[in-house]
Amino acid sequence: MSPAEHHVGMVIGIVGAGAMGSGIAQLALESGDEVVLHDVDEAALEHAADRIRDGLARRAARLDLDPDSIDDWVDGRLVRLRHATTLAQVGDEADVVIEAALESLELKQTIFRALDAASSPSTILATNTSALSIAAIAEPTARPQRVLGLHFFNPAPVMRLVEVVAGPATAGAVVDQATALVESWGRTAVRSADRPGFIVNRVNRPFTIEALRMLEQEAATVEQIDEALRDAGFPLGPFELMDLTGLDVTYAAANGIWDGLGRPDRLRPSPIQAELVDAGRLGRKTGEGFYRYVDGRRAAVADRFAATSTGLAPSQIAARVLSAVDAEAHRAVDEGVAAAHDVDIALRLGAAHPQGPFEREAAG
Ligand SMILES: NC(=O)c1ccc[n+]([C@@H]2O[C@H](COP(=O)([O-])OP(=O)(O)OC[C@H]3O[C@@H](n4cnc5c(N)ncnc54)[C@H](O)[C@@H]3O)[C@@H](O)[C@H]2O)c1
Questions:
Q1: CATH code of residue 149
Q2: Pocket residues: Cβ below 6 A from ligand 1
Q3: In Å, how far from its chain's centre is CA 202?
């Protein structure tokens, strides 16, 4: 199925109606596909319906529609959204299921076992996992060749990137069909092997880890490092990014990838992350991380990080962080995680890099 062959009217099952599931549902509905949405939490389903309606309305406002027909456009898509009370119903009705429930292997395996039992042998079962192994999620099914990862980024309707992750057993035709599907939703697909962190979460790991190393070594301050990376074309510096994402989330991801790759020294999470997590200083959401926030706005660097500046030039700081990212990009390509071209696209669209590592290298 090429993008041209993908026609309106596929039935997309979505399991988990949280931030990701509702965003993915919106994308499918925008393109005229049908959505069968399932969640164990009734309130989550109601909240998702509101979010999807608002998201469709925002999308409609950007289309060149007659103002009178905006509501019709939204309603015309919302009629293709229905709720399923059971996983069996999702499996039974969907052509493709995308699971976006909680990040727990045990839970995902339970869900995949039930979907596998309820769906036709041709149904594709996809997971939006950020960090779990596709092979492990497919393991309880009788169709590992029809199981793959479709890793959307948050918020799904805004972020164009989708990492299409083939497990060791995934059939090439299934990867092609899933790629065509997400491309028909206006996404840009890159292909990743089933390796820890896939492309973005792994190759971009040194963006924060290397910055933390410089801080541990007192080679530069929080503010110097953030400013240097912003000057290099990034919308946020590493510490601003960690404060926004949440230290708990970043630290868990850092540990997961470090563990998954066999605990290499270069990606070892920083004691500074552990210290902040232990102290409950998780970033913006708690009012303090690397910076302090007052009424949701950044007030100053946190006392703990109010070091005096060092003599490093911003270009030296940025070069150190970026060369660590570049080295990880080379390692990932050498290990067969992805093609260099896909790594470039993934880092630009998934991590807001002004250029991909290989593009940067080619530009000298
Ligand atoms: N939030 C992100 O930035 C992001 C990005 C990419 C991938 N992911 C991954 O996507 C998945 C969902 O993340 P999220 O941020 O949307 O989480 P979320 O907490 O917003 O939503 C998860 C939803 O799953 C539901 N759920 C729990 N158990 C269920 C079950 N047994 N059956 C059906 N639904 C169930 C919950 O009620 C909740 O509504 C996770 O695997 C996560 O790692 C998240």
A1: 3.40.50.720
A2: 15-21, 38-41, 44, 100-103, 107, 111, 128-130, 152-154
A3: 12
